[in-house]
Amino acid sequence: MFRNTARRSTASESVSLHQDQALNTTIFLLKSFGPTGFLLREDGEVGDVRVSLGDPHACTCPAFTKEQEPCKHICWVLLRKFRLPREHEYSFQRGLVDRQILELLHGLHQTKGQQAEDGTLSQAASGPQAGRVCRRPIQAQDVCPICHEALLLEKGQPVSHCRFGCGNNIHISCMQVWAEYQGLSGGADAVKCPLCREDFCSLQLLREQARNAAKLFTGSEREKPNRHLGVRCQGCRLGPVTGKCFKCTVCSYFYLCEDCVKKGSHPQHPLASRTKRMGTWHLVPEDPKDEAPGATSQSADDSIVPAAAQPLPQYVLDRLPTVRVKPGSLLSDVGQQCRICLLEFSLGQRVRTLPCHHKFHADCVDEILRKWNSCPVDGYVLHNRCARRRTGETKPSPSGADANPPGDDLKGLFVPGVALGGRKPGVAPGGPPRSTADADPRTEERQRKEPAGNPKGSSSPNKHGAVTEIRGHPRPDLFVGGRRPEPRHPAVAGPSGTQPQKDGQHSRYKQATHTDRLGQQRNH
């Protein structure tokens, strides 16, 4: 068969790049011109482009006009609209002849399983209200007829359904673009379904759904893909990790940043890495030279590791806040729905909120969190080792090795005429060290109230309480105005060559005996 364009056996570099752009860009199908002509609008753009399939393909965008190669719009029609596999021969050709286009239109490139799923349509049942139909259940292979993206994706875009026609599900954001293209302005105007051409719903209801569905999106979804939300580096304790994130394949919930890995942190175990928080973990070669600069990780299946497949601990799952939908709750408004199953929150259902502020049915998200340690929408990591230590750390015990001795409190004490410098912490000037038990105020109070053996020879402090004689040596009394408690524990030898006192009780007995003798001498 005669061809206007040469046949290709492999995709060129530019076509492969455009295929990546097509799969990562949201494009809306606004209108069809026969079986091979389409009017498209890219998300965030104002102008529309027109694509025509043939030999060769054609597009009105500047990229195609300059390169004369299949642009991202042509690739989007082939990959999204007609669901061609990326490796299929027809997906990277500059044009298709009539026979190939007929095969494309009849879906001969699809497998038998895909044809069975696409051909199985559920009948629209009568709804609870007259003239309305029930919503069709969402299947795994269902796609939005406007953007042609799968409905049950990790994005979890809220959907609405055709209420007066086929009952099919369509993204709310796509229906807004569709209604804008139709030029509707009045709230009472009905939006036509792009599939059955019947009334989809009123424009006022669609706007209310869009307003309530906007509350389901959080700021974490607008973060850059290379910011690993919820991940704190175990080495430098900084977070969230930005750029390349590393994870130990042996230790649980152990994350590192690229700088700490370059410094040699955690060399005893193999690591896995990823660049995007929703990406796949790949094994890191032991020798960094094995990985060429600018090259991606190994593309083989054996390089993909189940490092991310760590369940959320049950005690963390139990602490996540859960509410039950009650009458009048904001969760029961139209447009409010679970981002996993895309079903509305009904009365009596339990709704669980994650730290990233996403809300899901508790039954839906618990099943995922028992396998994965991250939010299914934005990849927010819910638990890591640093977080566990922060929540479980306690203040050190005073009796520990790092505790300050009680004598350190004397460093800030100043008594006129008494020199405290040059003393060891915990050792009072001219005497043995004091223990923490001796500094108890209740012990001091009890010792004040004890009656002395002799009123004249009492060992209580004098009027000024500046000096107390013990064994003939004057010792400054730091506890001015109160009785100085004697030590009850063995201590090292004090200054002036005094021997260590083995027991504080024996010391008090000697002091009382010495005082009694002085009193007897005075009486004589």
From TrEMBL:
Location of region: Disordered: 389-524
Biased composition (Basic and acidic residues): 437-451, 513-524
GO molecular function per UniProt: ubiquitin protein ligase activity; zinc ion binding
Family matches, as PROSITE patterns: ZF_RING_2 (PS50089), ZF_SWIM (PS50966), ZF_ZZ_2 (PS50135)
ZZ-type domain boundaries: 228-283
The UniProt record lists the keyword Metal-binding: yes
Location of the RING-type domain: 144-197, 338-378
Domain SWIM-type span(s) in chain numbering: 49-82
Keywords, sorted A to Z: Metal-binding, Zinc, Zinc-finger
Domain of life of the native organism: Eukaryota
One family name in Pfam for this protein: zf-RING_2
Gene3D superfamilies listed in its UniProt record: 3.30.60.90, Zinc/RING finger domain, C3HC4 (zinc finger)
Name of the protein in its database record: Zinc finger, SWIM-type containing 2
Species whose genome carries this gene: Gasterosteus aculeatus aculeatus (three-spined stickleback)
